[in-house]
Design goal:
Blueprint lengths: L9 E4 L6 E2 L3 H4 L8 E5 L7 H8 L7 E5 L9 H4 L9 E4 L6 H9 L5 H11 L6 H13 L6 H7 L4 H10 L5 H19 L4 H7 L5 H12 L3 H6 L4 H13 L8
Helix pairs in contact: 5-6, 10-11
Length: 257
């Protein structure tokens, strides 16, 4: 994968992650396949204002990786560099990563350092979570998901009852707690699939599923993808969006426009 041309400073990076993909418009019209990211090579803060404005409107579920020029050219980026954080990029990297697709793969597959907090913050930006109270409970579910498999045990670990927890979620107009727990478990597994080459059935049993078949059926039902497909499509944001779409289709959730 050679260096990007000036006219190609905004590109798609996706399966099979061997190089950059053309057709950036697909990421903005909802046609980008799951597992794609936008890679933005920031070179000139004035010339690329339009790209920055466009990236602010990128669809949910498409992570952004920002690449910076060599240190001697960083001054040219300053008009926009201070605004990069508002784009909520997955990461900001030196331009040396342009020629190393394997390193970009690692970045895209890597789980957040604080997964539960990061996913909860993402859901707040999406407008799914609208109150601090429900945010704390959802974050706790993502924290406990690797350790608990039943809603009864979850409620006990959260020092509440199933009924009380259910009332909170109903009042917040979000899916029921059991759906959050099932999805949180799958999200942890999905990230593991992308970072661990072990057989799917081994990953399934380590995560508390009786076998790989059960995991596969649960994953297909909740997000529309099998474990092998999740392994091939890196990143976690698209997994969240796939689940949200299923909940919306089932009438359990209404997303803001």
């Amino acid at each position: 994968m050679g260096p990007l041309a000036v006219e190609d400073r905004l590109r798609l990076f996706g399966p099979p992650y061997a190089g950059f993909d053309g057709g950036v418009d697909r990421a903005f019209d909802g046609a980008a396949p799951a597992g794609f990211a936008l890679v933005w090579w920031l070179l000139d803060g004035i010339e690329q204002q339009g790209e920055y404005d466009r990236l602010r409107e990128r669809p949910a579920g498409v992570p952004l990786i920002v690449l910076l020029p060599p240190a001697q050219h960083i001054a040219r980026t300053l008009p926009l560099l201070k605004e990069v954080r508002s784009l909520e990029p997955r990461t900001v990297l030196p331009s040396a990563y342009l020629g190393t697709p394997d390193r970009l793969r690692e970045v895209l597959a890597a789980p957040p350092r604080a997964l539960a907090e990061t996913v909860t913050r993402y859901l707040r930006r999406r407008g799914v979570i609208r109150s601090d109270g429900i945010a704390r409970e959802i974050q706790r579910i993502f924290e406990l998901a690797p350790e608990v498999a039943s809603i009864t045990r979850l409620a006990r670990r959260m020092y509440t009852s199933r009924r009380t927890l259910g009332r909170h979620f109903a009042a917040a107009r979000v899916p029921v707690p059991s759906h959050w727990l099932q999805f949180a478990r799958l999200l942890h597994v999905g990230i593991r699939l992308q970072n661990d080459s072990s057989a799917i059935f081994r990953i399934a049993t380590r995560a508390g599923y009786p076998d790989g078949f059960t995991l596969s059926n649960q994953m297909k039902r909740m997000i529309g993808y099998r474990p092998s497909e999740v392994r091939e499509r890196l990143g976690w944001e698209w997994i969240v969006e796939a689940w949200l779409r299923r909940e919306v289709a089932a009438g359990a959730l209404a997303l803001p426009p």
